[in-house]
Amino acid sequence: MTISEVSEKYELSQDTLRYYERIGAIPPVHRTKGGVRDYTEVDTGWIELVKCMRSAGLSVEALVQYVRLTQEGDSTLLERRELLNEQREQLMGQLEAIRMAKERLDYKISRYDEALKTGILKWD
Amino acid sequence: MTISEVSEKYELSQDTLRYYERIGAIPPVHRTKGGVRDYTEVDTGWIELVKCMRSAGLSVEALVQYVRLTQEGDSTLLERRELLNEQREQLMGQLEAIRMAKERLDYKISRYDEALKTGILKWD
DNA sequence: TATTGACTTAGAGCGAACTCCAGATGATAT
DNA sequence: ATATCATCTGGAGTTCGCTCTAAGTCAATA
Asked: Which residues in B lie closer than 8 A to residue A78 (C-beta atoms)?
């Protein structure tokens, strides 16, 4: 798969795909003899993982670390689980922050709805 | 309330508090004759709102817009509700992204737990 | 074979959200 | 009054995560 195909499929710019590889957020991508990227399913699997995790707010740095550990082999299994656990905790926190903000927004919106419907403004 | 007290209470640096005010993410804060900030309850209410929304991922720009609209008075009620609704939608999307990432992390972690417990690595 | 178009790298540039700094001014305790 | 400390402003600096540019190389087509 060429970079433009991967870019299309995962809706990530070619620049971003190269960037992720350059900094190590994904392992080195398979290349043709000429040095052109030719993504395998393993490669795109990593892309998908990174896209998923980034969209949830994991830092690029955390992904780089994770990839580095996987490259180092089985001796880092424990460390990798720790890293994933930490990130999981982060996500749980973020989930809670969003839940709270949403609650607050819902309340505010309901007040606006009320005010717009009745024309009466009882503001706090 | 002085800026150092507010900074302490809301765990936001004094620089950040001044920054939020400077760019308009909160309305102008009450001052003493000497020009020193003296936060009222209304002021800290805004601080709390901004902290809540920022921690959930709302952009500073969105908050600036919201504050600007509130300053313009009742004619912007509808526009403000629209803005809050948009932000709410964003949060819902973010919630879903995090849910999905968490699911994936949970699965991966369970695989690591298994591997670490049994010593058997059946990797995909 | 020439030319077009996709791809390559290294490195600079950019927007968001702070964060830090310098120099001035305000508040307080002796 | 003076020393000390907190706070002020304007502006520069930092970090993150891309995004763009330039100049060169690879690949497919006429």
From this structure: 116
pLDDT higher than 70, residue B29: yes
Per-residue pLDDT at A120: 83
Spatial distance between the Cα atoms of B49 and A59, rounded to a whole number of angstroms = 25
Decide: CB of B32 under 7 A of nucleic strand D.
Answer: no
CA of B15 to C1' of C18 (A): 8
Q: What is the pTM of this model?
A: 0.94
A120 touches strand D (CB under 7 A): no
The angle that helices B41-56 and B3-10 make with each other, rounded to 10 degrees, is: 40
* B91 pLDDT above the threshold of 90: yes
Q: Kindly state the helix (H) or strand (E) to which residue B56 belongs, with its residue range.
A: helix B41-56
B2 touches strand D (CB under 7 A): yes
Mean pLDDT of chain B: 96
d(CA B37, CA B28): 9
Report the pLDDT value the prediction gives residue B2, as an integer from 0 to 100.
98
